[in-house]
Write a structure and sequence with these properties.
The structure holds six protein chains of six kinds.
Chain A: H1 2-24, H2 30-50, H3 54-78
Helix pairs in contact in A: 1-2, 2-3
Chain B: H1 4-33, H2 38-54, H3 69-98, E1 107-112, H4 118-130, E2 134-140, E3 143-148, H5 156-163, H6 165-174
Antiparallel strand pairs in B: 1-3, 2-3
Helix pairs in contact in B: 1-2, 3-6, 4-6
Chain F: H1 2-23, H2 33-45, H3 51-59, H4 61-81, H5 100-123, H6 132-149, H7 157-181, H8 205-228
The chains are: A mainly alpha, B mainly alpha, C mainly alpha, D mainly alpha, E mainly alpha, F mainly alpha.
């Protein structure tokens, strides 16, 4: 079922680029930027699975997207003023 | 101050809840591993024991269960009813979403529940969220605030009859 | 057609690196710079895994689908995966450290704008 | 026969993914974006299961389990953040 | 026999993803955050459960792990939606103009149920 | 303005380099020599079904020791940097919205299951995807869920430090045991290799990965707890 996998890979690639642009755009609220960066990581984890790397996929889901996002929100919760530029 | 008898009752309840937790965790472990060999069992017993002892606050699906045959039957019927409602809710939502005029009349209504046990209340809230057009927003002692896509009645008793009664019937027997 | 998947992943990874670098260089808010850094980090990991990918092969885990005798003909290169695993774990450590410093910087000046921190400028 | 159905299912899930992405980009309030994020991740779980099916490797399902857990926690963290819960 | 099971599995899979699609359409079309949340929660839960059941028909030896993912999803998905709905209500996300009643708002005005920021 | 132009020029240059790399990429058809060695010898030498785990824990075990050390140093430095910002016990606290009954009950229901999933992930590191680092992160997620329900919760730093240092000592101890009993530092053959695919196989790998999992979980938990205990700005 290679065509299906290639189609998925393309869709994920486009979505990741869109989410990456959303994450770095300065006009976005900071919490949504962080959420978009988390989305990039989560989708990258599916992309890793497509590249036959389940170990890396699990690491990215648990550490790269999970813990990083949580740490960001904990710091952001303390620095409420930082949400404004 | 509590009397020695009360302390003993509390200690026994605690031991019982830890034992139930341990059994639940062991069941989940066996489902995760997917086979029943000796080494998997040893590690599973060890891990479940450590977690059940280290986290005494935990509650499981079976902690407040009433171990009676009626509860078992009610459990089966609850799940049958629940899946029927889940499918119905999806079909209705599909009809709403696909119709061009989007016929909704949303609002947040207040309903009452008689359930006391924590697990039963959580299951009730989850069931309400997954059934036709309703979504639990807030739970405050005996009151539930429910978002309803298509408000049929604003009256507390009528809304309770329409939203809560169907599940409460079974959950009351299972968990109390 | 054949090795399309590796090309897609490589391109995505490089584009993400560029997006992350652009964000880190143009944003003035420290937290936004850290967010852009994590995006670029993900891109680097994606490139490294894509290099180890071989078309039409499967994950380097031996089970019923990959018997031991045919392993060398069926699996992809495991070494880049081990490297990336390390890189991700260290990446979250670095991010945590940067966030702790961002908190301290905010504590001293009550702002996250990097152009306000001019003490080390010469 | 079954193969055709699997392809059809993947296409439907892909369209759903694109629609949820549109809501993520448009979403006027942050609550809308979080809802879209939630939907995107749950559709991705179906995607992971389909990948496991296509490659025929049951061990990929472990990744789906961890993925479901972590995306759920992410949504709760953001929800608690926007209501200023920590 | 096994081919029959495969066809049943495929049909379940298509049904599940079709529900996912309808939910996504609802996500785009509904007027406010609460109604979008309704569309999102119900359909993604049932859709994913049906897809998992379909895959379990195609690969019966994975059934146990798929069941576990299903149980997990059945508890986490509504919970996150409820927490999100409450948070949205607390920060005062706008309701659609069609909204007829909001008892929670009225009760909050009377007594202080949770500090509003 | 001139700055932005400079950035765009820089990125265009980098983009050109990357485009050249993609254009010049020629995929291999077969494994290279190192990967071939791992594919052919892991099953007999190490006995682990997951070759990535075999590389991380045994072939490159010393690197993993370094990685765990880096992580430990990071957690320690985060604690040091934020030590002065610790919230005082009697400091005025802004009113937090209650987490609500549903989230509280859900946490009490899910935290044991999350912990169990973490244990499953690191104990099965040599058979299925996953391992100590992922399992540790999942354990830390359970701690995170407790913190979300009760933001003022104090997690005992003494317990975390005790788990962390005990695990570190055991890790090095098993490594040294490898020198004494088998071929070298962190050699897994101090225990019998067993049959491929069993839970008790691959020598000491399940034990080493469990230790790493506990250590990593304790480190991430201490990071989260330190951040949660800082004061509002």
């Amino acid at each position: 079922m290679t065509p299906m996998l290639i189609g998925m890979s393309l869709l994920l690639a486009v979505t990741m680029v869109v989410a990456g642009v959303l994450a770095t755009r300065p006009s976005q609220a900071l919490s949504i930027s962080i959420l978009a960066a988390g989305l990039v990581s989560l989708l990258a984890s599916v992309q890793f699975l497509l590249l036959a790397a389940p170990d890396v996929a699990m690491t990215e889901a648990a550490i790269g997207s999970g813990l990083t996002t949580f740490l960001f929100f904990f710091v952001l919760g303390r620095i409420r003023g930082g949400d404004r530029d | 101050m509590e009397t020695p008898v009360e302390a003993k009752v509390r200690a026994m309840a605690r031991t019982r809840s830890t034992a139930v937790m341990f059994a639940t965790l062991l069941l989940f472990w066996l489902m995760l591993i997917g086979n029943l060999t000796l080494d998997a069992l040893i590690v599973g017993v060890l891990a479940s024991l450590v977690i059940a002892v280290l986290y005494p606050n935990g509650i499981s699906f079976f902690t407040e269960l009433r171990a009676t045959p009626e509860a078992f039957v009610a459990g089966l019927r609850y799940y049958g009813y629940f899946f029927k409602e889940l499918v119905k809710s999806n079909l209705r939502l599909t009809a709403i979403v696909l119709s061009p005029s989007l016929p909704i009349r949303p609002g947040i209504v207040k309903v009452r529940t008689r359930l006391r046990s924590r697990m039963g209340r959580l299951m009730l809230a989850n069931s309400i969220t997954l059934t036709p057009g309703t979504l639990t927003v807030e739970m405050d002692s005996e009151w539930l605030y429910v978002h309803w896509t298509n408000v049929e009645s604003d009256d507390i008793e009528a809304a309770t009859g329409a939203i809560v009664a169907g599940f409460e019937r079974y959950l009351e027997v299972i968990y109390g | 057609m054949a090795p399309l998947m590796a090309y897609i992943a490589l391109t995505t990874g490089f584009v993400l690196i560029l997006i992350g670098l652009y964000g880190a260089l143009t944003n003035r808010n420290i937290l936004r710079m850290i967010v852009a850094f994590t995006v670029a980090n993900t891109g680097v990991n994606l490139v490294m895994v894509a290099i180890g990918y071989l078309h039409g092969r499967t994950a380097p885990i031996l089970d019923a689908a990959v018997p031991v005798e045919q392993a060398a003909a069926l699996i992809i290169d495991p070494l880049p995966q081990a490297l990336v695993l390390t890189a991700i774990v260290i990446g979250v450590g670095v991010t945590a450290l940067m966030l702790a410093y961002a908190y301290r910087l905010y504590e001293t000046k009550r702002t996250l704008d990097i152009s306000q921190y001019t003490e080390l400028k010469w | 026969m079954a193969d055709v159905l699997v392809y059809l299912a993947a296409t439907l899930a892909g369209v759903a993914f694109v629609l949820a992405l549109i809501r993520f980009i448009l979403g006027p309030s942050s609550a809308d974006r979080i809802i879209a994020f939630d939907s995107l991740t749950i559709i991705s779980i179906t995607g992971i299961v389909l990948v496991a099916l296509a490659e025929g490797r049951g061990i990929y399902l472990d990744v789906a389990l961890v993925y479901a857990l972590l995306s759920f926690l992410g949504v709760i963290v953001v929800a608690r953040y926007i209501e200023r819960g920590f | 026999m096994s081919s029959l099971l495969a066809v049943v599995g495929g049909i379940l899979l298509v049904g599940g993803t079709a529900f996912l699609l309808f939910g996504a359409i609802g996500l785009v079309r509904m007027p406010d955050a609460y109604n979008r949340l309704q569309a999102g929660t119900k359909t993604t839960t049932l859709g994913t459960l049906l897809s998992l059941a379909g895959v379990a028909c195609l690969h019966p030896e994975w059934a146990l792990k798929l069941l576990l993912i299903g149980i997990f999803l059945l508890f986490t998905n509504p919970l996150s939606s409820q927490v999100l709905a409450r948070a949205a209500h607390r920060i005062g996300v706008k309701k659609a103009p069609q909204t007829v009643v909001d008892r929670l708002e009225e009760d909050l005005a009377e007594k202080d149920l949770g500090a509003r920021p | 303005m001139i700055r932005r132009l400079f950035v765009i020029l820089l990125l265009l240059g980098l983009g050109g380099v990357f485009a050249g790399l993609v254009a010049g990429y020629s995929p291999d058809d077969t494994l290279n020599l190192t990967a071939r060695y791992y594919a052919d010898h892991t099953a007999q030498d190490i006995g682990a079904a997951n070759i990535v785990t075999a590389i991380i824990v045994t072939y490159r075990g010393l690197d993993t020791l370094g990685e765990v050390t880096v992580l430990f140093l990071t957690a320690a430095i985060v604690g040091l940097v934020l030590a002065q910002s610790r919230r005082k016990a009697d400091a005025p606290q802004r009113p937090l919205p209650p987490s609500g009954e549903l989230l509280t009950t859900g946490t009490r229901l899910l935290v044991p299951l999350i912990l169990l999933l973490g244990v499953y992930v690191f104990v099965n590191g040599h058979l299925t995807p996953g391992g100590g680092f992922q399992g540790g992160a999942i354990l830390a997620s359970a701690v995170l869920m407790l913190l979300l329900t009760d933001p003022l919760l104090r997690i005992g730093h003494g317990l975390i430090a005790a788990i962390e240092s005990t695990a570190g000592l055991l890790f090095v101890g098993i490594g040294v045991l490898g020198i004494v009993l088998a071929g070298g530092f962190l050699d897994n053959r101090i225990l019998p290799i067993g049959d491929l695919g069993n839970l008790f196989s691959a020598g000491a790998i399940p034990i080493i990965y469990s230790i790493i999992g506990l250590k990593v979980g304790a480190e991430f938990s201490s990071m989260l707890a330190t951040l949660a205990e800082t004061e509002d700005l």
